[in-house]
What does this fold into?
Amino acid sequence: MTVARGQIGRSVGRNLSKAPVPTVLAVVLAGCQLAAPAPPPTPEAPPAPTPPAAATREPEAAAPASALGWYYARIEAQRQEAGLLRTDITATDAPFTSNNLVENFVRIALYDEYQIVRGRPVARATPSTLRRWESPVRMRLDFGPSVPPEVRDSDRRDVAAYAARLGRLTGHPVSLVHGSANFHVLVVNENERRALGPRLRDLIPGIDADTVRIITDLPLETFCLVLAFSRDGTNVYSDALAVIRAEHPDLTRRACYHEELAQGMGLPNDSPQARPSIFNDGKEFALLTPHDELLLRILYDRRLRPGMREAEARPIVTRIVAELMGGES
It folds into this structure.
């Protein structure tokens, strides 16, 4: 979850008790938030625009079905008009060097920017540890009743291809499954999300009330989020849960998949210096870029280990980057 200007990859870690088994469940939270130029919501009511009269007269037109759908469609249009949500991932106007890549990896993989204070995430940059999966990642995509069949089919194809891509990049088993999963991706509308409490407790045994409320009370300006969990105080992920708003138009929803699933692999933070990247608060790029592919390759290099902090990891990351970039500084 992030605040202010659509920042990506903000994270929060804390310990949670699991009952009745005496174990510890730690959670890291990251997400995508509203970015300029869209105006912030007011507390009195969602600032959703009224559908144009023409659209009201012609319900068969391809238009969002709810007020929130119109709201998020307007934001997507504003972002694109401002040159954001780019899909030209090669981005020849955004070159980066080996030094850039090292610094971006350290900031994105080895820092948390959120802590829980009185049950709420609070922005507070904090050095953290390297975290990733050791077991195969089995992603499952579940849709609320509000999601049309054609959207379900299209999204399943896209997410299956993206999961396979994450597996190729990391060299770690990642797949979209229909059965038992450890990375749950829920696509739900506002009412469906607010009723998720019992389902969340089934999916993630040991999740506590504060973490459930982070999801069920999700503010309007938070577009999507991912929580990655580890048990017994380790830095190895055991479970993850992503929540995507069903009201999003196609590109925003696809951007949420790209961002949250990559963050759930172990890249929970963001950096304003990271470019071209989805791990940047500016929302310039919608889809995983070659820069981001390198971050994932670094993260799962076997020379790095879960639990490493910056002082230990940085010289290793520098060597890995030199190999990947051919020594260019």
Summary: Residues 149-170 form the longest helix (22 residues).
